[in-house]
Amino acid sequence: MSIFLHYFGLVGWSRVYLKTHYTTDIIGGALLGFSCLSLGILLKKDGLSKPT
Length: 52
Hints:
The protein has helices at 2-17, 23-46. It is mainly alpha-helical and 52 residues long. The protein starts with a helix and ends in a 6-residue tail after the last helix. The relative contact order is 0.09.
């Protein structure tokens, strides 16, 4: 898990360093991805994703 976070951090940093994205783009994308991941985990834990 830690290696993936480091990889995503390096990719984000490289985008800002190479001036292909703004810092706010990277932060916004990370927050959106984290929100989607959290929602998916919550739905899976609560059993809301089970077919009826």
